[in-house]
Design goal:
By secondary structure, the protein is α/β, with parallel strands linked by helices. It folds into two domains: about 20-290, Aldolase class I (TIM Barrel, Alpha-Beta Barrel), CATH 3.20.20.70; about 340-413, no CATH class. About 40% of the residues lie in helices and about 20% in strands. The chain has 17 helices and 14 strands. It starts with about 30 loop residues before the first strand and ends with a helix. It comes from Leucobacter komagatae.
Length: about 425
């Protein structure tokens, strides 16, 4: 089952925001995330807040979800206006899940239309939905493009049948190039998601998946090491000895292969787990998370952040539907980040990206760690020293990406 929501301060029923969120708001971009918490099958490794039809129970349904999410979007726009936040058009939208494309394409178009009605969508905005390869067809993708979507992120995960079976994925490898071609024909950019380190996946299997992904020439690619989350089906299988525990050394070997193969194919890494063909095809929505921009997260369990205030919605679709039917905030709890917490998060997140963290923004104590990080080959020495007159920045090396926790730990000790 999905992981438990964190504790926090009580969230007001009217969603009112404190005056502090106004500080610097005009300088921050604003995005919207919509969580669609439905899946046809629960993947054995997943602990996201998702539900199959048999897990929903009464009081919630896929059919009514789009109207509920649209109601939260209108509620959110009202809350932001009441707080006195400046009018900002939405620069990025991301539909995640779950599998957003289990809903009719008209539902996704309607929710996007509500965003357009409430906030406006900026010219050139990035609008993405996640999709399983077996959850869309040509007509579906054409409807999305006509509605204003610009990107689709397909959960490819692997090109090897036995790996897909271990992950409980429902599509066949042959389906991926079909939907990639359909997305391109509709005028959509394409991102592919991969997972490496699945129990039973060999180096040769991973190489085969990389070959298949690159044959599709995606605009963007994300790749994540499999993490065994407590309470998942996979965790139980490992505990019972049915499958092997993922190996950190194998993960590292697979990551190094991934980075080398993508670089040779003309892709550049811009975040530890993300590569793009050009700077223009980076995921601007995800970058907004890593650089501390503002976003409203709609849907069960969705997280939001505005001006150092973070909150998260009630988790179950039934509880969410009940809140929305009463016109109440769906927030479960919230926290106002302290200056110390915001600094720590900046270091944690901005040292993950190729653009790096400005050394001038580091505390003196953090700067003391820089010589050691350079000596250990964890950060780029030229970037840290401002070679060529550029701004001095903390940028991880390949070794530093593999040991990202070590880099952050040294900077925040």
């Amino acid at each position: 089952m999905p992981s438990v929501l964190p504790d926090g301060d009580p969230a007001p029923a009217d969603g009112a925001l404190p005056a502090s969120v106004l500080d610097g708001a005009g300088e921050r971009a604003f995005g919207v995330y919509l969580h669609v918490p439905y899946c046809r099958v629960r993947c054995g490794y997943c602990d996201f807040n998702t539900y199959t039809a048999s897990e929903l129970g009464g009081g919630a349904s896929q059919a009514g979800y789009a109207a509920e999410a649209a109601a939260e979007l209108s509620f959110g726009a009202g809350v932001m206006r009441a707080a006195g936040l400046p009018e900002r058009e939405v620069s990025t939208v991301f539909f995640g899940g779950g599998t957003p494309t289990l809903l009719p394409a008209s539902d996704l178009a309607m929710m996007l239309g509500r965003i357009r009605d409430e906030w406006g969508i900026a010219p050139g905005a990035e609008v993405t939905t996640e999709a399983n390869p077996d959850s869309v067809d040509e007509a579906y993708l054409e409807t999305l493009a006509d509605a204003g979507f610009t990107r689709v992120s397909f959960g490819m995960q692997s090109a090897v049948p036995h790996v897909l079976r271990t992950l409980d994925r429902t599509h066949s490898p042959e389906r991926v190039p079909v939907v990639v071609a359909a997305a391109r024909a509709a005028g959509l950019q394409v991102s592919l998601d991969l997972i490496y380190g699945t129990p039973g996946e060999s180096i040769e299997d991973w190489s085969r998946s990389l070959d298949a992904a690159l044959e599709n020439a995606p605009d963007h690619l994300s790749a994540y090491a499999l993490i065994v989350e407590a309470g998942t089906k996979l965790a139980g299988q490992i505990r019972r000895g049915e499958v092997a525990q993922p190996d950190d050394d194998v993960h590292a070997e697979m990551y190094e292969m991934l980075d080398a193969r993508l670089a040779a194919a003309g892709y550049e890494w811009y975040e530890i787990s993300n590569w793009s063909r050009t700077p223009e095809t980076r995921s601007r929505h995800n970058l907004s998370y890593w650089t501390g921009e503002d976003w409203w997260g709609a849907g069960p369990g969705a997280h939001s952040h505005i001006g150092g205030l973070r909150w998260w919605n009630v988790k179950h679709p039934r509880a969410y539907a009940d809140r929305m039917s009463q016109g109440l905030s769906p927030a479960h709890a919230r926290e106002l980040l302290t200056d110390e917490a915001r600094y720590s998060e900046r270091v944690l997140l901005e040292t993950r990206i190729a653009d790096g963290f400005a050394i001038d923004a580091l505390s003196e104590q953090s700067r003391d760690a820089i010589p050691g990080l350079i000596a250990d080959g964890l950060i780029d020495g030229r970037a840290a020293l401002g070679a060529g007159g550029s701004e001095r920045r903390i940028v991880p090396t390949l070794r530093g990406r593999l040991l990202a926790d070590t880099v952050v730990g040294q900077l925040l000790r």
